[in-house]
């Protein structure tokens, strides 16, 4: 998969060299390119924002640098993702859909957001999705893009060493994951549930399912 990220803070994405994503890049499974939006400005001050038409607080990102950047980066195969608190909610199912795409481009807005005409312009030409991480407001799209990139790329075959670990985790089955334990069997007086030491795989699977249901009812009844 190819991923292009356009931002005025490229350093936010330095961490993409680390951990599983870094390894997937080194192995050629992921081709990640981070671009500074200011490279597509033409004035001495490298201006990317201006005051909003109609008035109001804050600044809006100007359409021209975005147009020049996206003209260069987008192809017929691209899904353009614009992180925004005004978008559809990012879920495991959106991550799964995106993980099957050959090319994702993230347009990370700052200030009050990007001039709407940029979104409308590229929506006319292909796939554009306004996507929100959740019902809260971040300072810009960078942190949201990072979360979406991590959730999406780990679903690409080969990125995670043990694909079995993808199957039983929270949200894959529509339930939250059951509690997990490792050695020692007793830690500060807290014991590992006896069933997990029994070696009875059928009973363990049943117990884990019950724990998942109970945890989901407790923490996220909206999922049931
Ligand atoms: N930018 C600012 N807030 C955001 C959010 N909740 N999700 C995605 N992008 C954002």
TrEMBL record:
The enzyme's E.C. designation: 2.1.1.228
Gene3D superfamilies: 3.40.1280.10, tRNA(m1g37)methyltransferase, domain 2 (1.10.1270.20)
One annotated GO molecular function: tRNA (guanine(37)-N1)-methyltransferase activity
Chain sites annotated for binding S-adenosyl-L-methionine: 109, 133-138
Known partners and oligomeric status: Homodimer.
Entry function: Specifically methylates guanosine-37 in various tRNAs.
Ligase recorded as keyword: no
Record HAMAP family: TrmD
CDD domains per the UniProt record, alphabetical: TrmD-like
Protein name per the record: tRNA (guanine-N(1)-)-methyltransferase
Record flagged with keyword S-adenosyl-L-methionine: yes
GO process terms (BP): methylation
Keyword terms: Cytoplasm, Methyltransferase, S-adenosyl-L-methionine, Transferase, tRNA processing
Pfam families: tRNA_m1G_MT
Catalytic activity: guanosine(37) in tRNA + S-adenosyl-L-methionine = N(1)-methylguanosine(37) in tRNA + S-adenosyl-L-homocysteine + H(+)
Family membership noted in the UniProt record: Belongs to the RNA methyltransferase TrmD family.
SUPFAM superfamilies in the record: alpha/beta knot
Chief place of localization: cytoplasm
Subcellular location: Cytoplasm
Organism: Microbacterium aquimaris
Domain tRNA methyltransferase TRMD/TRM10-type positions: 1-224
